[in-house]
Description:
- The structure holds two protein chains of two kinds.
- Chain A is of the alpha+beta class.
- In chain A, about 25% of the residues lie in helices and about 35% in strands.
- In chain A, the strands form four sheets. Chain A has a six-stranded mixed sheet with strand order 6-7-8-3-9-10, with helices on both faces. A six-stranded antiparallel sheet of chain A has the order 13-12-11-14-20-21.
- In chain A, helix 2 packs parallel to helix 4.
- Chain A is elongated.
- Chain B has a single domain (about 70-280), classed as MetI-like (MetI-like fold), CATH 1.10.3720.10.
- Helices cover about 70% and strands about 0% of the residues of chain B.
- In chain B, helix 4 crosses helix 8, helix 5 packs across helix 8 (about 155-165) and helix 11 runs antiparallel to helix 14.
- At the A-B interface, strand 6 and helix 2 of A face helix 9 and helix 10 of B.
- Magnesium ion (MG) binds near residues 44 and 45 of chain A.
Amino acid sequence: MAHLSLRNVGKTYAGGTQAAVSGIDIEIADGEFIVLVGPSGCGKSTLLRMVAGLETTTEGEIHIGERLVNKLDPAERDIAMVFQNYALYPHMTVRDNMAYGLKNRGESKTTIAERVAEASRMLELGPYLDRKPRALSGGQRQRVAMGRAIVRQPAAFLFDEPLSNLDAKLRVSMRMEIRKLQKRLGTTSLYVTHDQLEAMTLADRLVVLNEGRVEQIGAPLEIYRKPASTFVASFIGAPAMSLLDARISDGAISLEGHALARVGNASGPVTLGLRAEDLRIAPQGIPLAVEHVEELGAQRIVHGTIGAQNIAVIEVGEAAIQDNVHVAVDPDKLHLFDTSTGRRLEVQSQPHQEMAL
Amino acid sequence: MQRIKPFDHLILILGALFLITPVVMALMSSTQNAIDIHNNGLYFTPGSNAVPTYGKVLTHRGGFTGDVTGMRMLMNSMIMGIGFAVGKIVLSMMAAYALVYFRFRFATLLFWMIFTTLLLPLEVRIMPSYQVMSTLGLLNSYTGLIVPLLASATGTFFFRQFFRSVPDEMLEAARIDGAGPFKFFIDILVPLSRTMMAAIFIIMFIYGWNQYLWPLLMTTDESFYTLMRGIKSILQVWIGSQIPDYNEAFALAVLAMLPPVTVVVIFQRMFIKGLTESDK
Lengths: 357, 280
Ligand SMILES: Nc1ncnc2c1ncn2[C@@H]1O[C@H](COP(=O)(O)OP(=O)(O)OP(=O)(O)O)[C@@H](O)[C@H]1O
Ligand SMILES: [Mg+2]
């Protein structure tokens, strides 16, 4: 177990003109569960594979514990990795799959047997130890892949979308299992996913990546509550936060001519972020033309337009929804972003003049 | 279930007969004596000469020097077949491993160079090969018989395609598990290639078994006679009024058929098992 630090890490693929990943600075504490999240192609896998030693690091330094590992082979880095397609050795039994790495490290037979027994007890793999991977279900294979990582007792676990080949239900239960296991073992973990729900539920801290750069690092709730940019805002949370063109004039935010709240920010155009779950259908407020309602059972998502801008509202009531409704939002639930840079603007509130909607 | 169609079966039966008839004919004729065959043509009925003919073929010392028996020829053919198959598999696996997993310049160019030799049959380079072997003093030796033909474009091609289909993650998992290039090859790739090896073994064994021209050129010593040459030499005795020992030639031909059939039967089972066992 060890802390992990990435210092100004970057990677340009041979022949690539643009860096796939650049300027990554992350300090990961011992035992922390870090989730790298971002859209496809943002460099999550690249970054993880650089930590694993499967890709060369062209810039910056990666430390595992006190060691600089840039030049070390994957086997020497004291890490274990779980792959999306499990990458189990098809011709070896479950037991041999787990033992292979230990054998190569020259561990004694008794140590290997003990570790495999322990891991299979933890993962409930006992009955399958003598089977070949092809005789296992996807979930069981996933467990074997986890087992292979656990037996090595590494300084860090690296996961590259380990659950994306499983069906939705199994994904949820495996997700909890991974989290429990990681807590119990206390092993520093780096986990890649593009599923924001998985990211939110697993992470001690989230790292949101966009085009090879860190967009925001923080605890899941912190990122949810205070997204640092429009990118993060639209990526974290489902349905995505509605981003609307608005203006600040005369100390108030106005959206399509409707004043929303008084703020102390400078006048000019802003991007207004509204989460569907913060909006509610109310007797008065901003008029919304309903276009489409998604029924989810526990709630429904109302899609509509304000002026010409799309917006989503989560509604929990039972009543039928008219074609034209009004929506309201608490002033402290507003998110403001700079229109040109997309960065977050702190709302400078004027508590005494707050407008009720 | 599909309905059984009589016409389909008719075609199937005709096809089977077409392929099996010559074999039956050879087997039956080998149990007759040479004079009957010479007079009456080929037989479809068993004769009474089976035991003496096969006994003679296996143990009779023939040839000019009179010390090459059927057993000896069988053994030589066996050495050729197995030597070819094993040698070609080992060599082409190693070549394919290098081509697929090691990043060296010109790998693709090299591969295509190897691949184009597929188009050149042995006969094209038979004289230079002979020259080389003769200069090295390897005429009349098993080494000389086998080694020059070991390079196999077919094998290299098949193994290359197979290795490329092994997911990259397998290599990466093995690297994390501390398996170096050698261990990865032995522990992972070789067991995964079993099916491929069985298939290539069948092809190459038969290729080696059926070699005629090359042994004819490479060996003058009769103790290196293979079955193929034995059959030929039996039929080559048109001296005076002597009748060739047709029955013996047929017996040798039947014997020559057995090992390839055995190889196909054994390896086919492995081959099919490998196919059905392989991971999705
Ligand atoms: N071997 C490679 N050679 C060149 N470019 C590459 C290579 N691998 C990845 N890239 C590029 O690097 C960028 C990041 O890729 P990466 O695989 O890290 O994305 P990702 O975030 O893991 O995406 P996904 O969620 O789809 O897995 C992409 O633009 C990709 O095209
Ligand atoms: Mg990826």
